Every structure is written in structure tokens, then in C-alpha cells.
Interferon-induced protein 44-like
Amino acid sequence: MFYFPGMGGKKSKPAPPPPLLNNPWRKINWGRDKHEALEYVNTYRPHNEDLQLRILLHGPVGAGKSSFINSVTSVLRQRMCNRATVGNVYEDCLTKQYKTYKIEKENGFYPFVFNDMMGMKYSSRRTRKIHVKDVKQALKGHVRDGVTFNPERKLLKEDRYYNRAPGLNDRVHILVFIIDANTESLMKQEIVETIQDIRDEAIDLGIPQVSIFTKIDTVCPEIKQDVKNVYSSRRLQEKMEHFSAEVGIPLNGIFAVKNYHAETNLSDDTDTLILSVLRHIINYAGDFLSTREDQRPHRQQSSM
Ligand SMILES: Nc1nc2c(ncn2[C@@H]2O[C@H](COP(=O)(O)OP(=O)(O)O)[C@@H](O)[C@H]2O)c(=O)[nH]1
Ligand SMILES: [Mg+2]
């Protein structure tokens, strides 16, 4: 007598669902979207020429903030660029200084800049609170370039890096949470609380927020093999939905990218994802900026 598992008294486990959905849950036109987004980014101008969009990237050490800045620079310059220092996973942190990154274009610079702030590695509840206060100051434009944040003490008004009278260009126009898609501890309570606290402040200030999942190539072999599987992967979809439910950012404000981190050549599909999120960022930040354009871009000079 042969014994077939599942036919006897014992029930066999149902087969796990296949790793890829039949239809992606978000549509990307891999041929066309890159060119449309590139055109949008290259031609975007704020209404007032003196204005620029400030994009603040926030996320844990090693999430891929510097790599994202390098990836955007590489896509726009159409060659591999490594200006923002990328950390080694074994190093503690490299991005200690608050620094503005501009990207050169033919006759000048793109009208948007990046800053990054690391967080979520706190020795105590107190240091977490200090960090959240520093981020709030940055959102309002009070933080000058070059400051090294002190985890034990928030930036004070007396500090030389404290900008007492920020202009519209000093303020943050969009807040981007950078999340390593493969972090198992993604939803540690302190991370959720930090994001929620920072989001509350951004909401009060009217600043839009989005989130970017990086390192999607490490989530499943299907994406590593072909980045076009990004929005067909069940595992990544689950992670993004879970994150959305935990922190309250709607799913349509959460994007996925693979950064250029090891490769030497650009690829159209990787470019497409990077440009698609950049386009949304510029769009949301630009909307926010235009609602504030009644304010002057720079500190008003005394007319005396
Ligand atoms: N596999 C993979 N590795 C990445 C990706 N983005 C960044 N990394 C790596 O993650 C590490 C930390 O990146 P980094 O940009 O320095 O993170 P930061 O601390 O947030 O600025 C580096 O070793 C990068 O090469 C990605 O999309 N895929
Ligand atoms: Mg960095």
C-alpha cells in the first residue's frame, strides 16, 4: 500500500501563495514613465526663481539616505555619482553633520536640495525626545548647515547654528521617511513613536510627508532578479501595508526604490523607480511651497 500525504487522516498544510501577484498592485509603465518623470523633473521651476524646494530625508543609520541622494544625482547626471558619503553597514554612522546637497545641472543647479537626518538609535527616552525636537527645528528652518547634533542636548536658540529668522528657502517643504525594506525591527515601538511624533509636527506645519522603502532587492529573490517585480511582490506589499497601518502614512504616499549601491552602470528600470518617487516628491513639495509663497524667500533686509 502506498501512502499519499494529505489523503489520510492528517491534513496537509495549504500551499503558500506564490511570491508574485498575477497583477501588480501599482502600475508602472517601464518604457515610458522614466522619460515623462525625467522631463517633469528637468523642467520643474518654482514660481519664483529665488525659491528652492528643501527635501528632508529622515531615517535610521544605514537606511540608505546617502545612497538615495547619490542615486538621484546619478540618474539626473546620467552617470554614477558618489557625493554623499555612504556608510559601511558595519560602521556606526557617517552622516553626522547636517548638510545641504545641491545637484548641478547645465546652467546652475536643480531647484531642489536634500538634507538628511538620522535617528532612531537612542540610548534613552530622553535622547529620543531631544532628537525629535531637533527634527522639529529643522522642519521650521532653524537649523543651519554644518551643525553636528548633540544627542544629549537639543539645539538651543543661542547656538551659532540656530537660525533665528529662517526664510522660506530654509524651511523644509517635504519630509521623507527612508526605511530599509529588509529591517526586521521595522516596527519597534520607539521607531513608530518617533515617526508619529515627527509626523504630528509636520502635519501642524502643513508639510507633506512620504516614505521610501529602500533595498527592495534584499526583500525577495524575485525583485533582486528583476526590479520590475517590485509591485508584484507579496512580501514587499505586506511590509508596505503594515508600515502604512502602523505610522498612518497612506499607502499612496509610500514608494519603493533600489538605490545604486554596488553597480557601475545605470539601468532604465532602476532609474524609473527613482525618478517616479522624485517626481512625486517635487510635486508635493511644490504644492506646499506655492501655498507659502506669500512669504519672502530670504530674510527681509532692513530698508534703513
Ligand atoms: N542592496 C542594497 N543596498 C543598499 C541600497 N541602498 C543602500 N544600500 C547599502 O546600505 C548601506 C547604508 O547606506 P547609506 O546610504 O550610507 O545609509 P544612510 O546611513 O541612511 O545614509 C550601504 O552599504 C549601501 O551600499 C539598496 O537599495 N540595495
Ligand atoms: Mg548617510
The CA atoms of residues 176 and 220 lie 24 Å apart.
